[in-house]
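Here comes an entry:

___
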Amino acid sequence: MTAELARLSPEAKAALHWTWRDWWARPDQIAPPGGWTVWAFIGGRGAGKTRAGAEWVREQVKAGRGRLALIAPTAGDARDVMVEGNSGLLSVCWPHDRAADGAHLGRPVYEPSKRRLTWGNGALATLYSADEPERLRGPQHDGLWADELAAWRHAQDAWDMAMFGLRLGERPRAVVTTTPKPHPLIRALLRDPGTVTTRASTFDNAANLAASFLAKVRSDYEGTRLGRQELYAELLDDVPGALWTAEMLRRAEPPETLVRVVVAVDPSGAASAADEGADEIGIVVAGRAIDGTFHVLEDASCRLSPAGWGRLAVERYRARLADVIVAEANFGGAMVEAVIRAADRSANVRLVNASRGKAVRAEPIAALYEQGRVFHAPGLDRLEDQMMHMTAGGYVGDGSPDRLDALVWALTDLSNHGATTWEGLL
């Protein structure tokens, strides 16, 4: 037994469907019993999902499976997390491992150039990136580990191709290890009668996590919608009446060339980052493509002093080769412009005035999403969380939707740049 297994908390072991007695008596039963096709381990950050997936793959190789697929959001994730990570396959497989029939397995040999691991009995596990669904067209497997399925850019396409190839052996099976998001694929997977689900929160695995990390995430996210999803692994329903739903948030790589790029800033009005209860400064970067689509590239929102957020906005302006910094002037237009120009006197700055409410300003932008004209880069979870809490009656989330306000200013400029009041943009 490895030292890491020995450190697992009772809560984590229960979430993985085994206890100390189960482990000693039946060491190859990490997965739940039954005639399932897909085991969905839905867990919070640090809940032990990766470890569960790696142990399941080892268990399958010991049981005789010979062709497995390992699929991650990117090729780098497959290597860094599923194979070489602290909880990856190279850390859980033992030099003296043997198969159920006594054949020598040992630790697998990892060949990065061939994207594969090979065990002593000839069993192979091949690495795939969900960014390249077509690479899954053709290969066939008798086992599959899909990590962070909710973060796959081309989730439906990659999952479909993987399922078409899961066709070897008497009972091919898959394990999905992911933090949930309200994605149609995740909902469909959990409703499928062939899926068995295990849930675990971040705090179920507290014994293996830094106390400072646990204290920080409790302080920042306890009681928030994002915390419920990322820490407690809740699959959240859409907010009734929200202007944005999960289905409206489309993801795609932006084109290499954009005809216009905007950095939008929504200042909080706080004099310093230390102001008690200060809202965030929304900073969002977006661009318009030649085909008329819009691409949200980055959410750089922060909680900094005016000098700090001014430098950050200019940094993103330069890094993205943006055309303009658009900043809301309602908290003192002269001050806002002075803060930005203090960081870069040559920056192209345009101030805009919010003379109507947040929901009214957001509605035309929501319409662009309904038309399928806006696409998101990965890593915009907090922004998307605010979007799905904006209703026609106002914002129903925690705090102020500063990220959303910056997004609205950015996309408004990209679709109708030139006006300086909201009325002029309608």
Q: What stands out?
A: The longest helix spans residues 49-63.
